[in-house]
Amino acid sequence: MLLIAAALSAHAEIVIDRTRVIYTDGAREVTVNLKNEADGPRLVQLWIDQGDAQREPEVTDVPFTITPPITRMDAGKGAALRLFFNATGHEPLPTDRESLFWLNVLGIPPSGEAQEDKAGQIYFAFRTRIKLFLRPASLRPVANEAPDALQWRAAGDSSVHVTNPGPYHVTLTSITWANPMGEFSTDDPPMLGPFASATVPLSKTGNAPPSKQQLAFTTLDDRGNTQSHQAVVAARK
Q1: For the chain, which residues make up each domain, given as ranges?
Q2: Whole-angstrom Cα distance, residue 115 to residue 121?
Q3: Residue pair 144/221 in contact by the 8 Å Cβ criterion
Q4: Which terminus of the chain has a lower count of CB atoms within 10 Å, N or C?
Q5: Mind listing the pLDDT tens digit for each residue in 43-86?
Q6: Left (φ > 0), alpha (ψ -120 to 50) or beta: where does 76 sit?
Q7: Which residues is 107 bridged to in the sheet?
Q8: d(CA 161, CA 153)
């Protein structure tokens, strides 16, 4: 029970002001704001990785610098971190599509912290990890048009195949497909990378009326807001 309580109390102690970071190539820097919502000070470590969540911060090799990489935040206080992109010394990145990285924020309770009134509790470091998109400035069309450009076709009565023909990542958050066999959906679809495709299995959630033969899906935009869309599903090949 103590372990569960400690884990819950650690959840989202260091709050980030967004759910994703868009870094347009050519920008001087991007500022991300943090706030410590814990009931005590936290040491915060920050780093960026390229997809391996288990990779140690000191061995990550990415074309970004964070200032400061480590900071102390008192309870209720905020801090601003600055991200800089520098490709020097790194493998060239594609210029015809976005590249995906991950921003890590680790909040650590101070060691030896006096806890006379909380004896017996166990304190955990808690990490938040959000997507960081490096976006070439020359990409066309604009990012908010990417979801409606997705191409859908049937992959069976209860699955769909979706193709992303564009240069942006598209984060799908739900899919509902009504066809003659019923209504099928998922709340855990994949994020589609640029020029990528995926077959998505769906679960039956009900019967669809004959007049409602369509696909509806939701995505997250650059601000992390949910957007709704509709699409036509092509016949299975």
Answers
A1: 2-135, 143-234
A2: 9
A3: yes
A4: N
A5: 999 999 999 988 888 888 999 999 999 999 999 999 999 999 99
A6: left
A7: 44, 126
A8: 5
3-class SS of residue 8: helix
Phi, psi for 160 (deg, rounded to 5): -130, 150
Q: Distance between CA 82 and CA 30 in Å, rounded?
A: 6
Are 189 and 175 a contacting pair, CB within 8 Å?
yes
> Domain 143-234 in CATH: superfamily?
Immunoglobulins (2.60.40.10)
Burial 210-223 (b: 16+ CB within 10 A, else e): eeeeebebbbbeee
- Cβ–Cβ < 8 Å for 205, 216: no
Provide the residue type at 69 as one letter.
P
Answer whether 59's CB lies under 8 Å from 86's CB.
no
Q: Do domains 2-135 and 143-234 have the same CATH topology?
A: yes
CA nearest to 76, candidates 104, 38, 113: 38
Nearest to 185 by CA among 163, 210, 207: 207
Mention every residue, 6+ apart, whose C-beta is less than 8 A from residue 49.
55, 57, 60, 62, 101, 102, 104
- Given this structure, which CATH class describes domain 2-135? mainly beta
Place of tokens 């899919």: 175
Place of tokens 């391996």: 52
Between CA 161 and CA 236 the distance in angstroms is 9
Q: Compare 58 and 237 and report the one with higher pLDDT.
A: 58
